[in-house]
Every structure is written in C-alpha cells, then in structure tokens.
Write a structure and sequence with these properties.
With about 100 residues, this protein is mostly beta strands. It has no helices and 8 strands.
Length: about 100
C-alpha cells in the first residue's frame, strides 16, 4: 500500500533501536525506549499559506530526522509501523 501525506505532513519509519549499550550489555525489550530517529518515507506538497501560496517542504524522502517523543500519529502500513507528523514537529535532519 502506498500513502502520500497531504500538505505539510511527513511519513516516517522509525530506525531500529540499539540492541546493546556502548559497553556491550544487551538491552532487554522491556527496557528499550522507542527511538526518536526515523527515515522519511514520503512528504506532502507543502503548507498552504493564508494568501494561497504553497511553501515547499524542506525535507525529502530518504532523509534521516529526529522528532519529539510525543509527536505524530502512528499508523500501520502492510504490518509495519510508521508515523505521520507535521514538518514543524521535526527537530533536526541527521547528516551522515
């Protein structure tokens, strides 16, 4: 199933959480936090301003981003969890 976000919304998929700590200890599933890092899957066309002009998105598919812990709406597509959030909820783009 394909999903295209509307306006200034972004569809992201969380990056897998770390299985081990930096010292090599394995983290049990109950103690893992959901990562705040995700990969952008799809973006909308942009925000429509009051004057009718469309402000284009600064994000693109394939970008890696950080977002707030309690932002966005979780959806399942083909059994995989994704998050739809507004572009303004993205905190930063991670450049590798």
């Amino acid at each position: 199933m394909k999903l295209r976000p509307l306006y200034d919304r972004v569809l992201v998929k969380r990056v897998d959480a770390e299985e081990k700590t930096s010292s090599g200890l394995i983290i049990p599933d109950a103690a893992k936090e959901k990562p705040m890092e995700a990969q952008v899957i799809a973006v909308g066309s942009g925000r429509v301003a009051k004057d009718g002009k469309i402000h284009t998105m600064t994000l693109a598919a394939g970008d890696h981003v950080l977002f707030g812990k309690y932002t966005g709406d979780e959806v399942k597509l083909d059994g995989v969890e994704h998050i739809i959030l507004r572009e303004q909820d993205v905190l930063a783009v991670i450049e590798h």
